[in-house]
Design brief:
There is one protein chain. The protein contains 11 helices and 3 strands. The chain is mostly helical. The protein has a 3-stranded mixed beta sheet with strand order 2-1-3. Helix 1 runs antiparallel to helix 3 and helix 8 runs antiparallel to helix 9. The N terminus is likely disordered. Putative odorant or sperm cell receptor. InterPro entries: GPCR_Rhodpsn, GPCR_Rhodpsn_7TM, Olfact_rcpt. Keywords: G-protein coupled receptor, Membrane, Olfaction, Receptor, Sensory transduction, Transducer, Transmembrane, Transmembrane helix. This is Olfactory receptor 7A17-like.
Length: 314
C-alpha cells in the first residue's frame, strides 16, 4: 500500500465497541450517563473544597486538582464518541485525532503525577506529622502541581510531534473509541519502531516509575500505622489513605493492563474495553469514593447547599 502524506490524509475511522445498530442507543445512553456523572460529581468536589476554608489544606488542594483533571481527561474522548454515535459517523479528522492524542496524554499523565503527589502528601502527614505543615506549605504544593503540568505538557508534546512524522496507508480504521496513540502507531506504514519504543518507554517511565514511588510511600505509611498504639488511631490514619488507594489501584491496574496485557494478547477489543476502566470509570468513581468515605467533604457540600440563595425549600 502506498503511504499517504499529511497533505492527502484527512481522516481516520473510529470503530468503537460494536457495529450493531441496535446497540448504539444503549452505548450512547450508558456513556452519556457516565460522562454527566463524572462532570457533575467532580464539579461538586471542586465546589466543596473551594467554598469551605476548612478544606484549604494540601490534601484537598491536590484532590481539587485531580477532580479538574478528571473532568478534562474524560472530556477529551467521550463527547466525540457521543457525537459520532448520534450522527451515525465514525469519522475523526487527522487534525482532530492528533489533537485528541495530545490532550489525552496530557491529562492522563497529569492524573498519574497527581496520584503520586497525593501519596507523597499522605506519607508526610502520617510518617512526619510534626514537620507536615512546614514542609507541605502552599509554595511547595503549588510547585508540585506546576511541575506536574509542565512535565505532562512536554511529554505529550513530544509524543504528538513524533506521531505527526508518521505516514499512513489507506487502512485508517482505529479499533477503538478514541485516537489512542498505540493504535495509531500500529496503523503507520512508515518506520514505526522508534515510535513504539517511545510509547512503551513512556509508559514504563511515567507509569511504573510513579507507581513505584506510590508503593514505597504506602509501605512506609503502613509501617507507621502499625506502630500506632491505639486501634482508633490506626483506623483514623488508614481511613485518610483508603480512598486514594482505591483510585490508585483501579487507575494503574487497568491503565498498565491496556499497554502490556493487550500487547501479549493482541486483542484490540479487549484493549478498548479495558481503556474504559481508566478513562471513564475511574474519573466517575473518584467523587463517590472520596465523598462517601470523607466526612469533611460531606459537611462542606451540606454547608454549600444550605448557603443563602442556594437553599432549596419544599
Amino acid at each position: 500500500m502506498e503511504p499517504w502524506n499529511d497533505t492527502r490524509l484527512s481522516e481516520f475511522l473510529l470503530l468503537g465497541f460494536s457495529e450493531e445498530p441496535e446497540l448504539q442507543p444503549l452505548i450512547f445512553g450508558l456513556f452519556l450517563s457516565m460522562y454527566l456523572i463524572t462532570v457533575f460529581g467532580n464539579l461538586l468536589i471542586i465546589l466543596a473544597v473551594s467554598s469551605d476554608s476548612h478544606l484549604h489544606t494540601p490534601m484537598y488542594f491536590f484532590l481539587c486538582n485531580l477532580s479538574l483533571v478528571d473532568i478534562c481527561f474524560t472530556s477529551t474522548t467521550i463527547p466525540k464518541m457521543l457525537v459520532n454515535i448520534q450522527t451515525q459517523s465514525r469519522v475523526i479528522t487527522y487534525k482532530g485525532c492528533m489533537t485528541q492524542i495530545y490532550f489525552f496524554l496530557l491529562f492522563g499523565v497529569l492524573d498519574d503525577f497527581l496520584l503520586t503527589v497525593m501519596a507523597y502528601d499522605r506519607y508526610m502527614a502520617i510518617c512526619h506529622p510534626l514537620h507536615y505543615t512546614v514542609i507541605m506549605n502552599p509554595w511547595l504544593c503549588g510547585l508540585l502541581v506546576l511541575v506536574s503540568w509542565i512535565t505532562s505538557a512536554l511529554y505529550s508534546l513530544l509524543q504528538s510531534l513524533m506521531a505527526l512524522q508518521m505516514s499512513f496507508c489507506t487502512d485508517l480504521e482505529i479499533p477503538h473509541f478514541f485516537c489512542e496513540l498505540k493504535q495509531v502507531v500500529q496503523l503507520a506504514c512508515s518506520e514505526k519502531s522508534l515510535n513504539s519504543i517511545m510509547v512503551y518507554s513512556g509508559v514504563g517511565l511515567l507509569g511504573v516509575g510513579p507507581l513505584t514511588g506510590i508503593l514505597y510511600s504506602y509501605s512506609k505509611i503502613i509501617s507507621s500505622i502499625h506502630g500506632i498504639p491505639s486501634t482508633q488511631g490506626k483506623y483514623k490514619a488508614f481511613s485518610t489513605c483508603a480512598s486514594h488507594l482505591s483510585i490508585v489501584s483501579l487507575f494503574y491496574c487497568t491503565g498498565l493492563g491496556v499497554y502490556f496485557i493487550s500487547a501479549a494478547t493482541h486483542s484490540s477489543q479487549a484493549s478498548a474495553v479495558a481503556s474504559v476502566m481508566y478513562t471513564v470509570v475511574t474519573p466517575m468513581l473518584n467523587p463517590f469514593i472520596y465523598s462517601m468515605r470523607n466526612k469533611d467533604i460531606k459537611r462542606a457540600l451540606k454547608r454549600f447547599f444550605e448557603m443563602p440563595g442556594i437553599r432549596i425549600t419544599g
